[in-house]
Here is the input.
Amino acid sequence: MTTPTLQIGDRVRLATTPPFFKTADPMPMLRPPDIIAVGAEGDITEQRVGGYWVVKFERGSFLLDAQYLAPLDANDGED
Here is the structure.
């Protein structure tokens, strides 16, 4: 399985649920896997060491590995 090519500023969708979510706060906290639903959309705001991306969702910013994310096409979400 290949991981998608992502960049800061990209809009992404949560493709699969990780075992838990880790907040992107200065003092990170673990959150349950049901805090963000599969299909939720967010924006990549930062890349962190270890290949993690900071994604800003409606419920907050979380650290996620690229394997859990799917990039949105420019036409997604438009009528």
